[in-house]
């Protein structure tokens, strides 16, 4: 059976939940465009997250891979454009690791661009009435670590498998502990992720639309 792998993270940074996993786990074994979606939770740990991801990729041989993570403070579905070859952790990961200014892949390229149709995904999600944008930074924590590591592995394999990363806001039940922080309901996030998968499977050539930033 043809599969799509979608990953998310365990809670980190003192949170009791991670909105990425709360949404992504609802997609497990769902059928979209003739593909079975497989959801996998990754540890929020440098190194271990990629070990888990690579093992799942090897086992499943998916035709599309989307990693999802929490971006507390962001107000929309953020489809990431680029992953950079640096670990620079503002806080320790879930095993207490805090790498600073260390490459993810020693000797690897400075960056990789997402191979998802990022602008088509953003446009489709917006048309459904859900806030979305292209993001120019996946940060320098475990989310960027996974995005870069994923794209590096796909580049090494040299196949046509597409991959990329999407950040999502807090859930409302998290935001009550972060006064003033935006949030998005789980069902809205789930719909947006379903659309992202469907659009990625159906879109060969990305749209040429404004999606840049001035700063």
Automatic annotation (TrEMBL):
<dbReference type="GO" id="GO:0005829">
    <property type="term" value="C:cytosol"/>
</dbReference>
<keyword id="KW-0378">Hydrolase</keyword>
<protein>
    <recommendedName>
        <fullName>Pyrrolidone-carboxylate peptidase</fullName>
        <ecNumber>3.4.19.3</ecNumber>
    </recommendedName>
</protein>
<feature type="active site">
    <location>
        <position position="167"/>
    </location>
</feature>
<dbReference type="Pfam" id="PF01470">
    <property type="entry name" value="Peptidase_C15"/>
</dbReference>
<keyword id="KW-0645">Protease</keyword>
<dbReference type="InterPro" id="IPR033694">
    <property type="entry name" value="PGPEP1_Cys_AS"/>
</dbReference>
<feature type="active site">
    <location>
        <position position="143"/>
    </location>
</feature>
<keyword id="KW-0788">Thiol protease</keyword>
<dbReference type="InterPro" id="IPR033693">
    <property type="entry name" value="PGPEP1_Glu_AS"/>
</dbReference>
<dbReference type="InterPro" id="IPR016125">
    <property type="entry name" value="Peptidase_C15-like"/>
</dbReference>
<feature type="active site">
    <location>
        <position position="80"/>
    </location>
</feature>
<dbReference type="GO" id="GO:0006508">
    <property type="term" value="P:proteolysis"/>
</dbReference>
<dbReference type="InterPro" id="IPR000816">
    <property type="entry name" value="Peptidase_C15"/>
</dbReference>
<dbReference type="InterPro" id="IPR029762">
    <property type="entry name" value="PGP-I_bact-type"/>
</dbReference>
<keyword id="KW-0963">Cytoplasm</keyword>
<dbReference type="InterPro" id="IPR036440">
    <property type="entry name" value="Peptidase_C15-like_sf"/>
</dbReference>
<dbReference type="GO" id="GO:0016920">
    <property type="term" value="F:pyroglutamyl-peptidase activity"/>
</dbReference>
<comment type="function">
    <text>Removes 5-oxoproline from various penultimate amino acid residues except L-proline.</text>
</comment>
<comment type="subunit">
    <text>Homotetramer.</text>
</comment>
<comment type="similarity">
    <text>Belongs to the peptidase C15 family.</text>
</comment>
């Amino acid at each position: 059976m043809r599969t799509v792998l979608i990953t998310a993270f365990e809670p980190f940074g003192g949170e009791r939940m991670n909105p990425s996993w709360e949404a992504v786990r609802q997609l497990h074994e769902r059928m979209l465009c003739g593909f079975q979606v497989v959801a996998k939770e990754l540890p929020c740990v440098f190194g271990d997250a990629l070990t888990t991801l690579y093992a799942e990729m090897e086992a499943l041989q998916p035709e599309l891979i989307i990693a999802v993570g929490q971006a507390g403070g962001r107000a929309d579905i953020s489809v990431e454009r680029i992953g950079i070859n640096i670990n620079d952790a503002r806080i320790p990961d879930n095993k207490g690791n805090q790498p600073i200014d260390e490459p993810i892949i020693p000797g690897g390229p400075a960056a990789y661009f997402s191979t998802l149709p990022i602008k088509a995904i953003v446009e489709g999600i917006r048309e459904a009435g859900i806030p979305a944008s292209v993001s120019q930074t996946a940060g320098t924590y475990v989310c960027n670590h996974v995005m870069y590591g994923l794209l590096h592995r796909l580049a090494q394999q040299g196949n046509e498998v597409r991959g990329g990363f999407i950040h999502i806001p807090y859930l409302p039940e998290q935001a009550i502990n972060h006064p003033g922080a935006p949030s998005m309901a789980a069902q809205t996030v789930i719909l947006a992720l379903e659309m992202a998968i469907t659009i990625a499977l159906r879109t060969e050539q990305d749209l040429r639309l404004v999606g840049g930033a001035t700063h």
